[in-house]
Design brief:
Blueprint lengths: L1 E10 L2 E7 L4 E5 L6 H13 L18 E10 L2 E10 L2 E6 L2 E3 L2 H4 L5 E4 L4 H5 L2 H15 L1 H26 L5 H41 L4 E6 L9 H14 L1 H7 L10 E6 L2 E2 H4 L2 H23 L4 E4 L8 H11 L5 E5 L7 H6 L1 E6 L2 E7 L7
Parallel strand pairs: 3-13, 3-14, 8-12, 12-13
Antiparallel strand pairs: 1-2, 1-4, 4-5, 5-6, 6-7, 9-10, 10-11, 14-15
Helix pairs in contact: 4-5, 5-6, 5-8, 6-7, 6-10, 6-11
The chain binds adenosine-5'-triphosphate and magnesium ion.
Amino acid sequence: MILRKIKLVNFRNYKNFGINFQKNINIIIGDNAQGKTNILESIYTLALTKSYRTTLDSNLIRKDQEKFIITGEIRDDKIFKKLSLELYKNNKTAKINDNVINKISDYIGNLYVILSSPDDLQIIKGSPSDRRNFLNIEISQLSSNYIKKYNEFNKILKMRNDYLKLLYTNSLGDYNYLDILTNNLINREVDIYIERYNFISKINEYISEIYQNITEIDNLKIVYQPNVEFKDYERETIVKALSDKYRMNQKREIMMGMTLYGPHRDDFSFTFDENDIKIYGSQGQQKLAFIALKFAEIPIFEEKTNTKPIILLDDIFSELDKTKKNKLIKYIDNDYQVIITSNDTKDISKKILNNANIYRIKDGKLIEKGGESNGRTK
Ligand SMILES: Nc1ncnc2c1ncn2[C@@H]1O[C@H](COP(=O)(O)OP(=O)(O)OP(=O)(O)O)[C@@H](O)[C@H]1O
Ligand SMILES: [Mg+2]
């Protein structure tokens, strides 16, 4: 899949802006606060109808304006498609080839992107809930079953927590009803555990090799850490372990008025040679670990969607030494379309730069485009 061009009208700091991309590597250069990230954000928003940087859509509209329009043209094998997304007075309109698409699920999936942003460092440095959030977002894109079970799980979890509180204050409460809630909860939890476990296992098939290619450090791994121990991830094993856990902790859960075990308490960590990267990793090692995680998602998405995603890399070079920068680019310089932002081209090898399309952005305007193909799509 190739994004040939995007047009932005009143999106963030862009008034009326257009940019053509080439097939392989595109590098957007500019000083701080000129609009580099905004370009990647617009592509992400066009793909998924919402941004990763704000939950409030209206923040995306250029100040003092009332609507934004993002238009993109994609080429997918022999197909040309025009996508557009418009936001006006809290109403979003998504179009494919100028036809309005009413169901969001019919729209999403026409443009696949994988984005690595500096905010991703939170996956490593942040709290377990940041990591669970990451799992939810990524797995939701791959499995509609996951979204369904996860939403049901959340509803039942709330009901069960409310009922535990009620049992604490009312000694005549109905324990059979608690059992029903517990069984319903377990029923959803099993799917969530299995999907999370499978996703992490898939990531582990790729992440170590990617990390080693860039850093020469071996054995990067993601370790799934649910707060219930499972011998394996077979359905029966999980159901049994959860039932035992809830049975043994019933009194405690009633006293605390909440469900103490389950996927809402999951975590995972990045380890290299058994060391937690959050504790032992340098800044650069941590940064490369989440980039490796994103790269590991590429083949997983590709397998699932049968198309090559567009790779958006926001500010991936800062804090990396010259060798790592070049290894990183070399690693992705193949069949993928990649759009990278950076403050400068310092340290990037001539050979890579000659093959890339370079854009300079200043104050929401394209002031220069260069590189071999001069802005035209190869
Ligand atoms: N809704 C908006 N309307 C107008 N301008 C906006 C809006 N939202 C953000 N901006 C402006 O966009 C600019 C930030 O753009 P962006 O985040 O793309 O910067 P950047 O080039 O990626 O910088 P850095 O190198 O620091 O990451 C800021 O000047 C900000 O004030
Ligand atoms: Mg930025």
